[in-house]
Every structure is written in structure tokens, then in C-alpha cells.
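Morning F.,

Quick status update on the modeling queue. The single chain you submitted on Monday has been processed. Sequence for confirmation:
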Amino acid sequence: SVVIQECYVQNTAREYAKLYAAEAEPLEGFGEVPEIIPIFLIHRPANNIPYATVEEELVGEFVKYSVKDGKEVNFLRRDSEAGQKCCTFQHWVYEKTNGNLLITDLQGVGMKLTDVGIATLAKGYKGFKGNCSFSFIEQFRALHQCNEYCEMLGLKSLRTTHQKQRKTTSTKSKNLPNSSALKKVAPKKAREHRDFISSEH
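C-alpha cells below.
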């Protein structure tokens, strides 16, 4: 059911947020870390709709920090500390899961977030399948701009890895005519170089 899926997604995202907090909070100058509030499933057998969710009520201005399709267009988000930390959280999860999982639709009041979504690649990640299209992951990778919190956590810029890939591919094709010559001189080196390229894709 949708309700059960919603609980599963939010509580999975909550676990990632706890790991993110554990890594970010000790850093000097990082400050408060976004938190995803728990969502509880209750079973009401006498009711027409037997399952419902219960969560803490968030009081204050409700802001959508990241939109559901991975585009970072929300200016309220971009300029705020909470918004920047949400983007860093997305980048951190993306890096931790090797680009297999993205937490999206980050929204809430201040640093307390709820009703989030998760995108995974089609096959899922570690037995978990997200409830958002995996195209969001592509969009995030193309559009994410690192901020000071990404730098504090030492996250790799997604832009430069993209350009590096293009450069590597172009040099690879240029080297093709003399690749046989290369092989004779240093077969081991050439092999390692190829592995390096394929592992980047």
C-alpha cells in the first residue's frame, strides 16, 4: 500500500540523515544538521482505511528545499542554510551509495524535514526500491552545485568528474592508432589505464 511505502521511504531516508548528522555535526563550523522526522504506521482494524501514518506536527513556515525531479530551482532553498545543508545531504547520500540512491523532495520547517522521496536506479539499492524516477539521479548529477557544506564534508564535485570522463574518453580515442605500440612497450600500464577508464563509467 502507498501508506506503507511512504513510511518505508521516510524511515529509510531518516537512517541516512542520522548517518549524515553523525559525520557532519562534529565538523567545526557545520552547525545544526537537517533531521528527517520519524513517521509511524498505525493499524486500525475497525476502520475503513486500516492503515494510517502519524508524525509530529511541524509548526512554522513550510518550505520545499528540493523539488521532486532533482532540479534545484527553489530560491528560498538555495539561499537558506537549511536548504544548502539539504543539498549537501543529497550529495553526501549520492556519494555514499555510489550514485545509486538520491533522497529528493526535501521539505519541512527549518531543519525538520518530512514527506521526502527516494530515487534509486531501476534495480534498487541494497534491496531497497525508491518511489521516484531514477531520472532524478541523472538530473541531480547534472545540476547540483556544491556549496561550503559539501566542501566541509570533502565531497567530490560532480561537475569535475563529468568533465574528466569526457577528457579521458577523447584521449582514449586519440591513442587508439598507437595502442599496439603502447602495448609492446608497457602492456601492464596500458591495461591498468583501460581498467581505470571503464571503472569511471
